[in-house]
Structure formats: structure tokens, C-alpha cells
Amino acid sequence: MVAAILLTVSVVAFGQFALYYWRATISGVASQEISARIMVAARLASPSVGAGDFKSILMLNHLSPDLRGPNSSFRTVRAYYSIVKTLGKLVPAAASWANIEMTTCARYVAVVMGQHLDRNLECAAQMRGI
Fold first, then answer.
1. Between these two residues, 73 and 54, which has the higher pLDDT value?
2. Domains in the chain: boundaries
3. How far apart are CA 67 and CA 83, in angstroms?
4. pLDDT per position as a tens digit, 64-113
5. pTM of the full predicted structure?
6. Phi, psi angle pair for 61, to nearest 5°
7. Please, how many CA atoms are within 13 Å of residue 94, restricted to the half-sphere of its CB?
8. Cβ–Cβ < 8 Å for 117, 37
9. Spatial contact of 11 and 91, defined as CB atoms under 8 Å apart
10. pLDDT for the residue numbered 53
């Protein structure tokens, strides 16, 4: 019985650590500069990416399959975005936190798409040089 309780506590603690690590990684990438090409391609009007721009940036991902790289399906980010969005609607006190988290998700996807675009442009330049 004690072993089962210890195992449960350990698994929960590990899950919490994994979630915090994942969020820190997402925040670190999202804090980087977003490519102007991505801003233009996603037709973002304002110079800063907001929570509402998530779908337009994901649409760009679906429209440009050649820009896909490792982890380009964004499944976990999409799931996290939808969970946070639902939580923000259900709990009014968490609405501002949810908006910040959704903005972080949108910025993350935009930065990663810009990195994929840069990598593809470098590859194309190398191919032309051969």
C-alpha cells in the first residue's frame, strides 16, 4: 500500500515537472523575434502576435507543407491552446492568464514557422550553389 502511494506521488511530481519544463521551453522559443516574412504570409495586421492570431498562423502551416520540419504538427501546442481557451471561457478569473498563455502559443508557432522557413531558404541556397 505504501509503495503504491509512493509510486503515485512520484508519477504526479514527475508529470508536474514535465509540464513546467515544457511550458518553459515554449516560453523560451516564443520570446524570440518573429520573422517579418511569417507576419506577412499569415496576414497579421499588427506588429505583435496576439492570442487570436493562432489559427491564421496554423493555417499557414497547413498551406505550406514544405515548411514542415521536426515537430511541425504542433499537436501538443494546439491541445494546450484549446484547453487554456476553454478554461478561460469557463473561469472568468482565469481569462487574463488564458489570454497570455494563448498569446505564448501563437508566438511559439510563428517563431517555429519562421525557423522552418529560414532553414528551407538556406537549403535552397545551398542547392543552387551545387
1. 54
2. 2-129
3. 26
4. 766 666 656 788 999 999 999 999 999 999 999 999 999 999 999 999 88
5. 0.84
6. -65, -40
7. 12
8. yes
9. no
10. 86
Interhelix angle 95-129/2-30, nearest 10 degrees = 60
Task: Give the pLDDT confidence score for residue 43 in this predicted structure.
Answer: 81
Comparing CA positions, the residue from 14, 17, 19 lying closest to residue 6 is 14
Amino acid at 6: L
The size of the chain, in residues, is 130
Query: Cell triple for residue 53?
Result: 492570431
Q: CB burial class (10 A; 0-12, 13-18, 19+) of residue 72?
A: middle
- Rounded Cα distance between 40 and 37, Å, is 5
C-beta of residue 98 within 8 angstroms of C-beta of residue 84: yes
